Amino acid sequence: KSGKEGDRRQPQKKIEVLSERGTANKPNSEQKGADRARAMSKDPRISLTAGCIAGAVECCCTWPMEYIKTQLQTFRKVHGGPPPPFTSIGGGLVYTVRKTGFLSLYNGLAPVLLFSVPKAGIRFGANTYFKNLFRDKVSGKITMLKSFFAGVCAGVCEATFAVTPQETIKTKLINLNMGMTSGVAHIVKHEGLGGLYNGLFSTCLKQAGNQGSRFFFMAQVRQFMTGDAEAKLPKHVTFVGGLGAGLFSVLTTSPFDVVKTRMQSTEAKHYK
Hints:
Elements: H1 2-25, H2 29-40, H3 44-74, H4 89-100, H5 109-134, H6 144-176, H7 180-191, H8 200-226, H9 235-264
Helix pairs in contact: 3-5, 5-6, 6-7, 6-8, 8-9
């Protein structure tokens, strides 16, 4: 009898040991959530480096349009005064090339190119940082609203540390038709170092809305295409989505951009 009872108890003990091992090896829900959150978090240093390269390429490709845009935004319409020399992009390109030559379309590029690297790096690095900060600690996901506010925070960071001095120098160099070294010396001499931060508040408003709307738009595209707001998209889809995000951000922040440019121009005294 004792032998039979021992044989009956032995399988029961084996089942208990196996169940204990399975429980020990199976991570609990909190551990799964933490692992998922870590996997979905991105390294801000990678985003910063990629953003620096993208910023320099973007700056060189779009500068002539930026030059004409700044000119159009700084023209003042005075009743009874002379009309502005041009009122459209095409007219501005033709007028500038005829009057001062093709290379003058690149006046003011140096400070923008110099600042574009840290600007884009701060933008994407800060966005990744704030998204990691705002995302749910268990699921690792982030809502659309929090994604928008991460972009807003990134915009304020880039406006404070890079965009405001960059835009002030750029705008005044275009107005003065001066090179970077002589132009910066002129600004500091007549306005002090504080002159480099003209229009800080309007720049923060513009960049906060700009980046918030851009990152929000791209999150919506990813959500629509894949069902995941942070999924990777094919390159051509990302390109088209980026074009849409850029157009959307310009439409939503253009008024702030006009105010910012005029506050940073050599005629800013008329708007104080």
